[in-house]
Amino acid sequence: MSDRAAGRPESRGSARLSAVVWGLVGLIVLVVLWEGYKAFGPASGVQVFDTSILPRTDDRSMPHLLAMVQRALEPVNSSAGSQAVWVAVVAAALTSLGVAAVGWAIGSVVGFLLALLMQRLQVAERAVLPWLILSQTVPLIALAPVIVAWGGKIQIGAFSWDRWMSVAVIASYLAFFPVAVGALRGLQSPDTIHVELMHTYNAGWFKTLLRLRLPASVPFLLPALRLGAASAIVGTVVAEVSTGYKGGIGRMIIEFAQSGTSDPAKAYVPIAGAVILGLASAGLVALLGLALKRFNRQEASS
């Protein structure tokens, strides 16, 4: 047992290094595939039964990756004092990150409370879990106008519903599901013998939850929270487009895409920014693992 405990930090370091290496390999493969297809793919794209499955390879449809990087360093437009594209993308990404953080927090709390309910009452699990799964089949494009319309009717004294709140609610709608499922799995993970031991000590449900189930759920909960954070970013980007909320990276993608015919490389910069934002949000949530390190001795396999 001591040998395993002694070797565990080294194995964790190797796992982190392996994740970084494989991430870099994936990035290199993506660059090779993009530039390789652009160099050798047909100019008209690939079509199967009159259906286009791969894009055209002209500079308007697929600019070179180097052209995208160069465009990111240039001003947004030709007006005097225009900031660089990457600066505008970072500002928009931070705006979206703030809204997504609110949505992630709401979704995480709701998801965890639902997990507690389903763990406490078996009948609740049978009744609620199918509806949780069904909820994820509702398209956000159809949900966004409803939330905006309902939110616009909320007026309590000096408080009025702002459009960014609708975006946060939509983000929470995507974030709560992985948290609910992951937390439920974690809360149910303790072995029967450990639960019976708590009963032997005359520990009630709350003390068993606090002393046994919550610590045991950490290896399941942390990946769920990371997935929820990435889902919140996706929900925020889609909601910004659907609700018309301005200032975020989702609206910037649409605005830059409108100039795609004359400036195609510019349109891809906020898309790359949205991808990096999703990765960064999951990385920030992963920092929670440092605070919960003693409970996260071994991350559960999915």
Automatic annotation (TrEMBL):
InterPro entries: MetI-like (IPR000515), MetI-like_sf (IPR035906). The keyword ATP-binding does not apply. Pfam families: BPD_transp_1 (PF00528). Residues 93-288 form the ABC transmembrane type-1 domain. It is a multi-pass membrane protein. The chain crosses the membrane at residues 20-37, 84-117, 129-152, 164-184, 220-239, 267-292. Gene3D superfamilies: MetI-like. It is found in: Cell membrane. Keywords: Cell membrane, Membrane, Transmembrane, Transmembrane helix, Transport. PROSITE patterns: ABC_TM1. PANTHER family: ABC TRANSPORTER PERMEASE PROTEIN, ALKANE SULFONATE ABC TRANSPORTER-RELATED, MEMBRANE SUBUNIT. Belongs to the binding-protein-dependent transport system permease family. This is NitT/TauT family transport system permease protein.
